[in-house]
Amino acid sequence: MYRIADACRDAGRAPAEITTIVVTKFHPASVIRELVGLGARDFGENRHQDAAPKAVELSELDIVWHFVGQLQSNKARAVAEYATVVHSVDRLSLVTALARTAAPLDVFIEVNLTDDPARGGVQPAAVDGLAEHVLQHPSLRLVGVMAVAPLDEQPRAAFARLRGISERVMMLEPAASSISAGMSSDFADAIAEGATHLRIGTAITGKRPDRP
Questions:
Q1: What kind and span of H or E run contains 46?
Q2: Which residues, at least 6 apart from 132, have a Cβ–Cβ distance to it below 8 Å?
Q3: Is the pLDDT of residue 211 over 80?
Q4: Beta-strand runs (E) in 59-189
Q5: In the predicted structure, residue 207 carries a pLDDT above the cut 80
Q6: Within a domain: residue 210?
Q7: What total number of domains does the chain contain?
Q8: Considering the chain, what is the average pLDDT of its residues?
Q9: Could you tell me the pTM of the whole model?
Q10: Which of 12, 141, 160, 166 is most buried, by CB atoms within 10 Å?
Q11: How far apart are CA 37 and CA 27, in angstroms?
């Protein structure tokens, strides 16, 4: 966590502005329990089949579950039973499916910062339309935008583009000021470009276990 504080200082920002989401992909519930004991509260999972049993096992703990992976529309209701934040909203059908769930949800629009249509996320030109669709549903709270930096581009340049997209979204919904960006290898660049939510895995948890 001290590295995050250092990055905030270098960017002229306060660490209190940052929500650090510990991504516990493939890690057992025991690791999450230990991290809660150390003060962590926000945890991210990217597969429903992994996240759901952990949420049940740790239900007595004060945890905010963030779903950070690609989400199939037919799993939206199940994910909403434990997650309160979804970072990967990228299409109209998923918005509709999430809006049908009983619990209010905070959602980020995932933006594809590459030219590869196979990558998750909506293309930048379509972000405004998707944001307007989210805003039509009272059960969804649009909190901001999310992206993963492309492998073939300097992360800071990519996050600068995401920041510009965030400013566009805020013209539609001023409260949607959050930016979910930055992972173990590039969170300092994300902080420098205004990220409010970091998705940190190995830098906190160590080497990820093999996929079960």
A1: none
A2: 172
A3: no
A4: 64-67, 83-89, 105-110, 140-146, 178-180
A5: no
A6: no
A7: 1
A8: 94
A9: 0.95
A10: 166
A11: 16
Determine contact, residues 173/144, Cβ cutoff 8 Å. Answer: no
Provide mean pLDDT across the span 79-108.
95
105 touches 80 (CB < 8 A): yes
* Structural domain boundaries enclosing 157: 2-205
CB proximity list for 116: less than 8 A, separation 6 or greater: none
**CA distance from start to end of the chain:** 28
CB-based contacts of 60: which residues, under 8 Å, 6+ apart? none
- Mean pLDDT across 106-129: 94
Whether 42 is in a domain gets the answer yes
**Residue 185, in any domain of the structure:** yes
Share of the chain above pLDDT 90, in %: 87
* CATH, residue 43: 3.20.20.10
Q: In this structure, is residue 174 part of a structural domain?
A: yes
Q: How far is CA 212 from the centre of its chain?
A: 23
Closest CA to 127 of 71, 158, 190, 172: 172
Q: Which amino acid is at 74?
A: N
CA 19 – CA 106 distance, rounded (Å): 14
Q: What is the DSSP string of 153-209?
A: S-HHHHHHHHHHHHHHHHHH-TT--EEE---TTTHHHHHHTT--EEEE-HHHH-SPP
Which amino acid is it at 208? R
